[in-house]
Amino acid sequence: MCNVALLGFGTVGSSVAKILCERANTHLRLTHVLNRNVERKKVDWLPSGVQWTENIDDVLSSDAHIVVEVMGGLQPAEDWIRRALQSGKSVVTANKQLIARCGPELIALASQRNQQIQFGASVAGGVPVISGLQEGLAGDELFKIRGILNGTCNYILSQIEANGIPFATALREAQKLGFAEADPTEDIDGLDARAKLTILARVGLHCNVAPESVMARSISPIDVVDFAFASQLGCTIRQISWAEFRKDSKTESQEGVLFAAVRPSLVELSSPLARVEGSQNLVVATGTYGGETVFGGHGAGGHPTAVAVVSDILAIARSRQSGPQSATSPAGQPVEITPTVTADFTAKHYLRFLVKDRPGIIASLATILSRCGVNIDSVQQKPGSTKSHLPFLITLEGCKASLVEQALQQINSLDFLVQPCLHMPIL
Amino acid sequence: MCNVALLGFGTVGSSVAKILCERANTHLRLTHVLNRNVERKKVDWLPSGVQWTENIDDVLSSDAHIVVEVMGGLQPAEDWIRRALQSGKSVVTANKQLIARCGPELIALASQRNQQIQFGASVAGGVPVISGLQEGLAGDELFKIRGILNGTCNYILSQIEANGIPFATALREAQKLGFAEADPTEDIDGLDARAKLTILARVGLHCNVAPESVMARSISPIDVVDFAFASQLGCTIRQISWAEFRKDSKTESQEGVLFAAVRPSLVELSSPLARVEGSQNLVVATGTYGGETVFGGHGAGGHPTAVAVVSDILAIARSRQSGPQSATSPAGQPVEITPTVTADFTAKHYLRFLVKDRPGIIASLATILSRCGVNIDSVQQKPGSTKSHLPFLITLEGCKASLVEQALQQINSLDFLVQPCLHMPIL
């Protein structure tokens, strides 16, 4: 029998409790539920033996074998996880920001104490991508991970595309339906996806990078007109998280380069990434030997996230049966490296302008672009727009993003622009 | 250090050897390569310490910890795997027919000897679906698994669809390109996919079923005209493997019912199953809590299959570090049940006829169908066909497959039929 204590009884926590109670044969027993103001949380469907508490010391001094942290937030979660590991308990957490920031330290601490820390629910909810990369594809040498890791952004972009509504309306509707938070910054600006990408880069590419070192761009400037232009190019727009490790860029002075970014991007309609609808998640892992492998499903929600949590609990329970695992350096695990991180991908580029129309605009733009050494691929205009708010599109031939940024610094000060140019890579 | 012996040095075996040699840090050492006529197999890129042999006793008496069986075929593979387990060695195999037939016995034998047997490569090659169901989704209660499990069939069907060529031509081309065997029966008739479905039902649904109890239908009657009709219905045609466990059908006399079949089926174009191209594989697992989770990638080929084999080797090496695992009943593993197996799904149905045209055909067919209690949904005809070989389509409203089969027994003896009616479910 394996005793489980639950820290947090919100959407995910109560789903975890539900699965543990409804599934027989699991050899797992829920012993504690901790929450602030725990009285208002009490439910009648949990066994009477469960202890409801607000005090972490009740959990730490108990006979719980596994502590499940599903409170979210950096503190007190981090502190309590450390104390749980130090008390000789294993930990399961769904806390992506915490694992993105302190994952390696917490894993090392767990290993010192002959315990485990599992975090399968921290990325892509119910989609078993962490165990898929770590175990299922352990035999491959992965070098690229692309994904749609934030259901909120994907829902909003799908709604703009399907219903032709502006960003602000789509966001409000997502908030009304519970697909977006009251303060949506973490999701919209890519900070949530960036934490998840950091974890995937660590687990799949064995690259230790700080979340802050990965570029994140907001999806808020995306408008209906961008889907019309994208469609003309045979593409749609999605928030794409991309991490690609280039070994060939390894020199004596550095351990290779990780190309990493989270941003709205154009993706070809034929790509599996283009077909992800609503709040679904998808991860495509590419390896030297096995090529592309795809993992997809529900990236959020109480029940799917709880499935990942319970799977992690079961994994720890299994390995408790067969003695402690050494978590830091299991046989065959490649050594982790710390590469340089850059967002300077070479790609085709999408530049969408909104201008007060007048003669000479294309000439001014073309002059600046050519001075920066980038070539125009096409110029497109949407018919029937007003002269005072004219959207038009310039696509660029493949070039480094840094050259485009250079050109945009000059372009964004031109007086005929109604708003700064929207710039996305075409993947 | 963990010593690995390889039985079989064909496409998969040599890919496994390549990955073991190319990847440093793996703590794995290849010690033996066994093959018939081993002299002609010798390569210069393996370390000189590797022992090449034709004699299984060399392997069994050696210090190899893990024996990897990638020879295929039932014998001597089964015999050698048993002897390896009995000699205290763990086993990794890619042999789907063997695992479909004797998986539970071999797992029990391994467990008796405190060893493990892993078979991640037996289904969907490099796609980590076995570990995904067994571990990543262990926290869910799966009840349905659908998949495209045979790359050869999917390649042939994709080619008929894309190029409008007859089945026989598509098969010949697949054989020329190495996507189909000289004797393609196992693939075309669904026996290969059926073995894989049996394994997935065991691992994911905890249903122990014999492969022979699962209905398998050939894709050979599918013709260009069927893709035209399917397209009119907003569908395409794929070989779909389907296993669905109905708990509510559990009675005192039986342990529930497993609906299972492998057959060409119409799938809506919006389904992820419809978008699987070429020799790719895809598995969709559905659970009570997590909803649908998708696993996709390269289902065959030396390198992708070798990735699955090496991942299994690494999993065993990891658990060797932490002591032996009890393989039969790990904590939280639901008890396996033995359900009744049926292919009698309720679905809409596609009946495609090829007839010598004359008045009264629809009337005869409609009479028989109505006597059997099934309702016609639509009748469609392709314009511009010859009267002596006129293809036309009847779709039926949702009904049990057994009622349709009953009607077809009478229909197939009608003298205006040029060939037996082609019958597929519309999923």
Verbal overview:
The structure is a homodimer of 427-residue chains. With 427 residues, chain A is of the alpha/beta class. Chain A has 3 domains: 117 residues, Rossmann fold (3-Layer(aba) Sandwich); 174 residues, Dihydrodipicolinate Reductase, domain 2, CATH 3.30.360.10; 81 residues, Alpha-Beta Plaits (2-Layer Sandwich). In chain A, strands 7, 8, 9, 10, 11, 12 and 13 form a 7-stranded mixed sheet that branches. A 6-stranded parallel sheet of chain A has the order 3-2-1-4-5-6, sandwiched between helices. A 4-stranded antiparallel sheet of chain A has the order 15-16-14-17, with helices on both faces. The radius of gyration of chain A is 24 Å and the shape is elongated. Chain A starts with a strand and ends with a strand. Strand 12 of chain A pairs antiparallel with strand 12 of chain B, so a sheet runs across the interface.
Descriptive keywords:
13 helices; Rossmann fold; 34% helix; homodimer; alpha/beta; six-stranded parallel beta sheet; 427 residues; Alpha-Beta Plaits; 3 domains; Dihydrodipicolinate Reductase, domain 2
